[in-house]
Amino acid sequence: MEDNKETTPDISAFLASAIHDMKNSISLLINFLEDNIVGLEPAAQRKAAPMLYEVKRVNVNLIQMLAIYKVGNKFYPFDLTENSIDDFVREITSQNKTLLDYLGITLNLDFDEELTWYFDRELVSGVVSHALNNAAHYTKDKLRLSVKEEDGELVIRVEDNGSGYPDSVLKAGDAVSKGVSFSSGSTGLGLYFSAMVAKLHQNRGKVGSMALENGGEYGGGCFMLRLP
């Protein structure tokens, strides 16, 4: 006798497709805001800047969820290629310049222009952009992006001059970096994504890592990504 039970649909595939569609729509909205905010009066620009921040934050979250889904289902096209750090930093700066300018935030850069490193450019760009976007919400008026080689690892730091991470966020970051699934709350997704990207990068027995701390050059929050 045949089994007439209906096959349970793969809801995760439907969600991934929906996320992809939402991401494309929000990208159009981001482009519209960035193209038109420049024509507003200064007072209106200050009001519109937080809107741009929120829309970009949602877009980043959707991109992260889509990447996590692809990695979890083992069909993310991990692309480990050699990258010029100078080109990488310039690209990240260009991607985030509009938002930081309208928020009145100065981004200072500290990197080795001659350095090259092997990593998945799209994934690491996503991690750094998320860190900058998050730091922009909590800083007073300046951020620092540092990309340098330290003890055989590429160390990327995003620092701000705000009041620093609260203990709850530092504990969450420590839990995620040790492999604990922390995917709830406003900080969980970004931390989980960053830790996942770090651990995908492996070389000569070493594995990448992510960490949060307070202090750094500006005395505020400091996000760190280490790639072997």
Describe the structure.
It is a single chain. By secondary structure, this protein is an alpha+beta fold. It has one domain: Histidine kinase-like ATPase, C-terminal domain (Heat Shock Protein 90), CATH 3.30.565. The chain has helices at 11-36, 42-72, 85-102, 121-138, 167-177, 188-200; strands at residues 80-84, 106-111, 116-120, 142-150, 153-160, 202-203, 206-207, 209-215, 220-227. Helix 1 (11-36) runs antiparallel to helix 2 (42-72), helix 2 crosses helix 6 and helix 5 packs parallel to helix 6. The longest helix has 31 residues, at 42-72.
Which SSEs are present, and which pair or pack?
Elements: H1 11-36, H2 42-72, E1 80-84, H3 85-102, E2 106-111, E3 116-120, H4 121-138, E4 142-150, E5 153-160, H5 167-177, H6 188-200, E6 202-203, E7 206-207, E8 209-215, E9 220-227
Parallel strand pairs: 2-4
Antiparallel strand pairs: 1-3, 4-5, 5-9, 6-7, 8-9
Alpha-beta classification? alpha+beta
Largest sheet: 5 strands, mixed
CATH class designation? Alpha Beta
CATH architecture: 2-Layer Sandwich
What is the succession of H and E elements? HHEHEEHEEHHEEEE
| Structure annotation, total helices | 6
Q: What portion of the residues fall into strands of 2 or more residues? A: 15-25%
Uncertain segments are: none
Strand sequence of the main sheet, in spatial order? 2-4-5-9-8
> What is the average per-residue confidence, as pLDDT, rounded to a whole number?
87
Count of beta strands: 9
Which range best describes the helical content: under 10%, 10-25%, 25-40%, 40-55%, 55-70% or over 70%? 40-55%
**Overall 3D form:** globular
Overall number of structural domains: 1
CATH fold-type name: Heat Shock Protein 90
Computed CA radius of gyration, to the nearest angstrom: 19 Å
